[in-house]
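Hey all, quick one. A colleague (J.T.) asked me to put the MRU job into the tracker so the inputs and the structure tokens live in one place instead of scattered across chat threads. No bug as far as I know, just bookkeeping. Sequence used:
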Amino acid sequence: MSSFKTMDWVDGNLHLLDQTKLPSSEEIVICKTMDDVCVSIKKMVVRGAPAIGCAAAFGYVLGVRSLAKDLNVENMSSESCFNLVTKGKGKIYYSLLKTRPTAVNLEWALKQMQSVDYKEHESMESYLNAIESKAICLLKEDINTNLKIGEIGADFLGQCRSVLTHCNAGGLATGGYGTALGVIRSIKNRLGDINVFATETRPLLQGARLTAWELTKDDIPVTLITDSMCGALMQTREIDAVIVGADRITANGDVVNKIGTYTVSVLAKENGIPFYVAAPWSTVDLVTPSGRDVEIEQRNVNEVRGFGDSVWVQENLNIFNPAFDVTPVEYVSAVITERGVIRGRFDIQKWGNHEF
Ligand code: MRU
């Protein structure tokens, strides 16, 4: 396991390790309401596709709990109670859903929460307990899924000892252990050593601040490079594979992930290096035909103007700041999921139609 907790459910509140403060300090943000969770997702206190899904599930619990508190449940017929809760749940669902648009795990997790049927419960209390258990279960399942992806990935990558990763697809981006970094952790456990090159990942520096922090914390050697050094690294050093996470994998196998992933994939192909994606099945979106159909989050231009309190560009400069890009399926050597290793669009459809 990773040696830190990305999130924890403590006495009915969601505790989040504040990723905006890492690596300088390890601080916890306590979310007591659904709005606290929405703000934390928007501000990227919690980030990474599976992690925002898990956080949103707890946000849903907090939202429904406060809705139930506001209703005078005891004096209401179960029918009107059901109608009011159903209406309120819709608002809660959309408030959480619109926090970040690109990662499909958020929608997936909220749908899982909505699948808990109010009608199957005799009382509001029993329903509230059921959704709380569901959110706890999603978090546990996410960790177990990552452990499985790690094992499948380690089997698949075999003797791989030097890898490049982009952004942070680690314990911090998930319930724990990580997807791309989970595979790296599993390889380290088996082989004893592995060398990781991490891109800094402009503009929010998830690689420099988060990947470097969590790998160092778990004694995995990491070397930091700036994003523009990837080509030179591939030309001059032995890189066995590139491994990254994903925010959404569309029906045709395109991979939507942190801005810069596409560039790394093209460089990998040019240099004959396999480009792997590690992701849970909850990241696979068989409804959306291709990467072109995915809404790419556009973030505040201030993220490119500087970092923290430092601003290094002139005022009123035009700035483009998409948070994600699309790596076409042709550049993806394989996708490692908990269901198995997938190669290309036909494999995705095949695994998707399987009953699990
Ligand atoms: O903007 P972020 O930090 O949420 O972006 C995160 C990524 O792009 C990750 O690579 C992706 O979510 C996979 S995390 C297992």
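Adding what we noticed when we looked at it: The mean pLDDT is 95. Residues 7-142 form a domain with the Four Helix Bundle (Hemerythrin (Met), subunit A) fold (CATH 1.20.120.420).
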